[in-house]
Amino acid sequence: MKSSFSFVLKCLVIMFFWSLLVLMSPFPGKAFGLELRDYYPVQSGYGWLYQQTDTLSQTPHSHIEVIHEVEQSGSTVFRLAQGGSINFPTERQKGFRDLDWDSQGLKIYRIVEKESNPEENVDVTFDPPDLYIPANLEPGQQAQVVLGTVTLEAVGQTVEVPAGTFPRCIRLGFHSADQDCPDTKVWLAPGVGKIKSQEICLEDGVKNTETSELVAARIDNHVIGNLPLCNGKVVSFAFSTIQEKGCSMLLDGIAIQGHPETYWAKFDFNPETLTLDVDWGNVGVGSGVLGPTGCGQFPGLDFTLEEPYLWDCKNGFYQTAGIFDTVRYAGATYFTEFVFEDSEPAFHLVRIWDQYGTLFWAQ
Fold it and tell me: Is 352 helix (H, G, I), strand (E, B) or coil?
């Protein structure tokens, strides 16, 4: 009887310590490793602004990523649009990746990279979609992915970047067959995503380490960190996603200095002042939907053929100007630039290019 009691007692002690270890684990309840989806959120409207430096140039520059939904091979996926400082119209959006999570992990459907030399542009569609990040990894475990291999190198790290201090971070190590840039390390924070990365490359035989650190992010219609504002402005469109119909557009993800939430607002084109004016009856917190609209006062004008994007011509923060790549009027296609004025608030038309990129009107 005593031996049976001792056996039961030992089992209870073992179960207690096993439960304690599970609770203390960086991934409690995950029998098959850390669930990486918690560390790499992919959701429409999310955005990240990074500051990049490298050991060769020592010159910081910005890099922004914003997610919105697109159709790809009959399915709705998430487009991670990437860009930096833009010199319009000779340079456009830097590129994008179409991604979505499934039971196997984060899959990549398409990758586009635009370079200054068009011959170096990349546009690859994966059919079927390939694995970008696996669903689960244990510390030290390596997995094969589309770009090479990925290893969960560390868990439970506290990482400090310009956006703040983030606990419980993990570090992934990517290794590819690219001889110029074989190794990349990425730090991910739960619920936020990538907060830091380091890529080691060889440029003309010289080692160059490029470091990217999070400055600010838009997560669940809230701003994390400190979104830079340029030229004394109080409004930023860095994380805005855009809907357009007829001669109207709706921007969400609008950040206002001193406010933790992001806002949405509808803007209508005014042909008398050549401005996109805010419609005060259609403004709110979070995200909105643009209803049917037209160009009754300016027949033949249409903004809807291509999604516009916001940018800043000086520092790449995408904050002060709106670019429409494909404005149609009287059967012709034009590029237009609108600059935002906080005091009105409205976007003012300041430049028009023809379809060949030749400037033919400026205010």
Answer: strand
